[in-house]
Amino acid sequence: MTRNDLDIDTLVGEWLTLKEAAAPLGVSPNRIKTLIRENRMMGVVRHGELCIPAAFIDGDDLVKGLPGTLVLLSDAGFSTEEALRWLFTEDASLPGRPIEAMRENRGTEVRRRAQSLAL
What we know:
It is built from seven helices and five strands. It is α+β, with helices and mostly antiparallel strands.
């Protein structure tokens, strides 16, 4: 099965509305929209409402290294959906999914791979 064969909702799993995402971060839902506009977070419309992957939040902060990785993926020409697929798809060389590696403080390896995509 290839990356494109899996539904994005299946890959990501849990989604948070802007309000749900803002609460643990201690910011307003409008701040989440700003982070999305600044490419420091990614959001997609799910069931008529802008949502972000729950895995992007670690306690009361964004996952360490997430904003920089999203910029690298954007610079490599990835669309939002392509970036989400990349972050949430198993990578045997990590091992695991890039988002999990970032949550486990292995973001340097993830960013190296993201940088190589732009070459």
